[in-house]
Give the backbone structure.
Amino acid sequence: MDRWERDGLRATNSGIRNQVDHILDALAEQRTHLRQVRERLSAVRCTAESADKLVGVTVDTAGVPVDVRFAPAALRRTPEQLGRAVTEACQEAARLAREQHAAIIAVITDDAEAIPDLPDLVPGAPSLREVWESTPENGSRADSARER
């Protein structure tokens, strides 16, 4: 191996090391963001009322009801009317929670998309991004990423 080949290999090695250092720095930053996101998600509460203002529902970030309130006039409604009002308020509060959730985790998803994937560093290597997106809990994220 002559000097030019060694210099070429050193340059390639240096480039790969720089990319790996960039990935490690990005992962460390993402870990910090994950902590912040977890804290913000645990604090989310979304409240919505039925159109007739008889029922108010508060949900957590997963859309699970944590509080249900009835106006005094709600008790004069039929069970069917009351059921529809509760369902309507729950659905709206859950929709608001999904919006909040998406806005909060956008920081992480944007960070993740900026990190190079393994095939970017090593041609022919398996894609970690594809593995991540194919997991059941991330299926909807993979679908939404494909729609973009």
